[in-house]
Amino acid sequence: xxxxxxxxxxxxxxxxxxxxxxxxxxxxxxxxxxxxxxxxxxxxxxxxxxxxxxxxxxxxxxxxxxxxxxxxxxxxxxxxxxxxxxxxxxxxxxxxxxxxxxxxxxxxxxxxxxxxxxxxxxxxxxxxxxxxxxxxxxxxxxxxxxxxxxxxxxxxxxxxxxxxxxxxxxxxxxxxxxxxxxxxxxxxxxxxxxxxxxxxxxxxxxxxxxxxxxxxxxxxxxxxxxxxxxxxxxxxxxxxxxxxxxxxxxxxxxxxxxxxxxxxxxxxxxxxxxxx
Length: 276
Ligand SMILES: N[C@@H](CCC[C@H](N)C(=O)O)C(=O)O
Description:
The protein is of the alpha+beta class. It has 2 domains: 2-118 and 264-274, Diaminopimelate Epimerase, Chain A, domain 1; 126-256, Diaminopimelate Epimerase, Chain A, domain 1. It is 16% helix and 41% strand. The protein contains 4 helices and 18 strands. It has an 18-stranded mixed sheet that branches. The mean pLDDT is 98. The ligand N[C@@H](CCC[C@H](N)C(=O)O)C(=O)O is lined by residues 13, 45-46, 63, 65, 71, 73-77, 158, 191, 209-212, 215, 218-221.
């Protein structure tokens, strides 16, 4: 079987995007694992499929991680889906409505070519993350085999935890990230951010993504980091986030408001995936 796809990235967080409206797609963990494989497949952090939209949405998007697990949100992927939809049909409006498992998102192409996505309100209630705790808090102590660690936790439509570190360059992203991703208090596993606060308007961030490992960038991770640091009143409403693959601007006015994420969406190539 042959499947047409587009390879894209948002500051190095890379995706294979498949239009599931115009061709049959066997949406499965196995398909994601095969396509995402960097040696035997196309190679990507996430496989994203585009489905028919309803009620005014241009489309619906679904996300599978490299390991085949389902994700509810993908900030960088959402911007790429918006750019893909505008390329596919230049008559589509700007802003554009796109539905996902986390709800309805609004994407707007800015004058400088970047895309600003409204990705919803951060959710701090432990049951919504999901995270095992009695009540929402700005800090949680998480038990590890050799002590405990201070974390923040939030859902951006997908689960995130955050560790504040003195320097992201020295942070044990691979080891601690893998440990926290599967910590028993996160029953659905979790994306793990390591943030260095540079000022009230700037942070540096590395993210160990659930179902992938460390990626060059994570849009929902950048959003989660700003939401948690804003909850702690450590940063202002607008924050520049530097990730290994590039820069995102995040704005969150606070409870009751949607969070805004601005950044690029890049096409890499179009191709055809042939598989048995
Ligand atoms: N890279 C994405 C997040 C992808 C999903 C995540 N790994 C999860 O399992 O929740 C982003 O840019 O937000």
